[in-house]
Amino acid sequence: MRASEPLVKHLLLVGGGHSHLAVLRGLGMRPVPGLMVTLVSREILVPYSGALPAYISGRYRAEELYIDLRPLARFAGARLIEAEVESIDLAARTIALPSRPELHFDLLSLNIGSIPDTGAMPGAAEHTVGVKPIDGFLRAWDGIRGEAVAALKQGRGYRIAIVGGGPASVELACAAKARILKDSGKTDLGLDIRIISAANEILPAHNQRAREAIRAALRNKNIEILTGTVVTGFAANTVLCGDGGENQKSIEADRIILATGASLPEWPAKAGLAISEDGFLEVNRHLQSTSHDFVFVAGDAATIKGRERPKSGVYAVRQGKPLARNLPRHATGRRLVGFSPQRSALAMLNLGDGGAIASRGELFFQGRWVWRLKHWIDQRFLRKYRDLPQMQPELGIARGLLERREERELRAHAMRCGGCGAKVAGSVLEEVLASIPGIANQGVEDAAKVTVPAGRELWQTVDQLKAFIDDPWLFARIATLHCLGDIHAMGARPDSALAIVGVPFASRSITRSLMRELMLGCVATLEEEDCRLLGGHSAETRELQFGLSVNGHVEPGKALPKQGMKRGDALILSKPLGTGTLLAADMRHLAGQRWMDAALRTMLASNRSAARIFREHGATACTDITGFGLAGHLLEMIAGGPVELRLADVPVLDGALECIGRGIVSSLHADNKLIERNIEGRGESRESARREILFDPQTAGGLLAAVPESKALSCLNALIDSGLEQAAIIGQAGDSTDGPARIVLA
Ligand SMILES: Cc1cc2nc3c(=O)[nH]c(=O)nc-3n(C[C@H](O)[C@H](O)[C@H](O)COP(=O)(O)OP(=O)(O)OC[C@H]3O[C@@H](n4cnc5c(N)ncnc54)[C@H](O)[C@@H]3O)c2cc1C
């Protein structure tokens, strides 16, 4: 995933088949900014079908068979999930995965191959090994080979029956024979491989000369072909053949391999996608499902309406290019390109002995050179997806701002890693920390030790903010106060903190200076709060971020609860509201200096004295007002029943009502408003700015406490005397706690 742009649409690729390889490469070469791409594949190392017989015969090593989806997905900027899709919900646009949450998509592409057609052959699941899916067959193949080699070495015979009369059966029979004889060091004696086909001809889709050449090659290899033999089912080590009447026969085998025609797994059909007459997912010439235009299908699983072709890797490969063009086109609302598969394809059959046969229409070739050509074609294909081009990361900085060497270094760094590699360089961090007095020296330990004073209990909190002003030092000061809010609200004493720092990708010197400003702002503020900084974590992030995990302690049982308010308690708010809307206006260049100055001063006011004053006045409940706004946090304080809120008394920052009146609100505002059903209005219209301010998210907001009515006035005066000039009594707890929690506006 690229982090430089907002992600607005999700393209989900299911299956690492031949066509999706081209899609991934295409996305790497021509990224679609804003498109999130995820590949879900049952396996990460996917075998290339063309190279399979050479691998089975022992001519290829694993490296010459498999394509690694991991680097390819990275190249494409795609998330990679190793899992098997179990179902699709087309109405909800989700796919289900085992032991993971479902995934939502906007656009889906299926390249999931096929499975052998077991048709009316009972016992297939229990007694045979399917040649497809290939990954499953390869796992079984090692077992078959081991058994066969051991049997031959011990002088016992070994029988393999391959059901199906197409190219896969022929190639498999030749390859298996070559490999087992080679590994056992034996001659042909005792190894019985036979091909069983219902058709009257082997390779019915090939021309006459190819068929004759294959028959001759199989005869030479002592591989028996039983054509016109209808398989009716399977029992243990037995292939049952015949018409159900008198012509029953059974063929015994140590292993039975099923290489019959292809069919579609059940789950995509169950989803409700259109199915073609031959039982596959029906697509139009854009490879788009004929029933659901947001689903694309390619490879064996798809049948193009009016352009039906045999299921083969060649067609799956060919469909890669149009699919790679159409998925981004569909996502961006452009016209799709059409695709028409060729009428016939060059078929090359590996004979497992260094020779091969090629045919296309009436053309026919045979010889070692055909194998060499096949080897060249297949390896060229594999190289295309292994040797990925090195893309130059775009730095997006003006020419001439940097020396060439610096630019090279920055470019190399731009290909930066995630995980630990995304940390700010250790040397930069060390330098910065060494230059800042006040960071508690923890020596060389990997974690910070927090000692809780005897007779106290530990409370912990964590919070983080994205920079909202272009002044890292001031931002860190406000963020620090914001993060301390929870501890103050609990009536606990801040003790120590760990910093969480995110700095944007920059040159070393700029990173150093940003970090230094942030850390100095944080440490200075923590010192004022009598809180120590013990350590932290830094990472490169898209924008400047700062947060703290804070530890505080309090006498056991003395922490101020959120939901402890008593009947008739007065509600007192220590700071005015409006930072959310004012910061939103500032981002749009619409907040003047006077408004912002007051807002910043409010945010820079610590909640420490308010917390002390509330405690001294017997507060029964307290919380800090942050992201959910006053209404959201007040609602959290109510265990049940009504609480009165006097809108006119709620203190508001200068300019905040004007900004809200102009429709300028924070991005969280709309979500915060979802609790409106818990508010009963009186007086103010639903849209009035004063009512809207209740949903304004606050940065470093004040504390809201419930104080016994008898002490409310002296508490308010103490707050004002401490410098919190806009503190106000804004409401009162109701007489009952029955019924749902609700706010009643007065
Ligand atoms: C022995 C043999 C030899 C062959 N030789 C040739 C040949 O020489 N030339 C040729 O053109 N064709 C050949 N074929 C045919 C070829 O294998 C298929 O036509 C081709 O593989 C189909 O490609 P595909 O892209 O549709 O899917 P596949 O290559 O089968 O890939 C499907 C992918 O989807 C994944 N997948 C499947 N289901 C799920 C799921 N539910 N969730 C997540 N992932 C899933 C699989 O793990 C796999 O990675 C041969 C077949 C066999 C069996």
Annotation keywords:
single chain; 746 residues; alpha/beta; 7-stranded mixed β-sheet; 5-stranded parallel β-sheet; 36 strands; 22% strand; elongated; binds flavin-adenine dinucleotide
Distinct ligands, ions and cofactors found in the model: flavin-adenine dinucleotide
Q: Over the alpha carbons, how many angstroms does the gyration radius reach? A: 36 Å
List how many beta strands DSSP finds: 36
Reported for the largest beta sheet, the result is: 7 strands, mixed
Through-space gap between termini: 50 Å
Helix content: 25-40%
Spatial order of the strands in the main sheet?
31-34-30-35-32-36-33
Structural class, from helix and strand content?
alpha/beta
The residue ranges in which pLDDT falls below 50 over 5 or more consecutive positions are none
* Helical run tally: 22
Give the overall pLDDT as a whole number.
Answer: 91
Strand-helix topology:
Elements: E1 9-14, H1 18-29, E2 35-41, E3 45-47, H2 52-56, E4 66-68, H3 69-76, E5 79-82, E6 87-89, E7 94-96, E8 103-104, E9 107-110, E10 115-116, H4 124-127, E11 129-130, H5 134-153, E12 158-163, H6 167-184, E13 191-196, H7 208-220, E14 224-226, E15 231-235, E16 238-241, E17 249-252, E18 255-258, E19 262-263, H8 266-270, E20 281-283, E21 295-297, E22 302-304, H9 313-331, E23 347-350, E24 356-360, E25 363-367, H10 368-386, H11 404-414, H12 426-434, E26 457-466, H13 472-489, E27 493-503, H14 508-528, E28 532-540, E29 545-554, E30 570-573, H15 579-587, H16 593-603, H17 608-616, E31 621-624, H18 629-637, E32 642-645, H19 656-661, H20 669-672, E33 679-680, H21 689-692, E34 703-707, H22 709-721, E35 728-733, E36 742-745
Parallel strand pairs: 1-2, 1-9, 2-5, 9-21, 11-18, 12-13, 12-18, 13-14, 20-22, 27-28, 32-36, 33-36
Antiparallel strand pairs: 3-4, 6-7, 7-8, 10-19, 15-16, 16-17, 23-24, 24-25, 26-29, 27-29, 30-34, 30-35, 31-34, 32-35
The chain binds flavin-adenine dinucleotide (FAD).
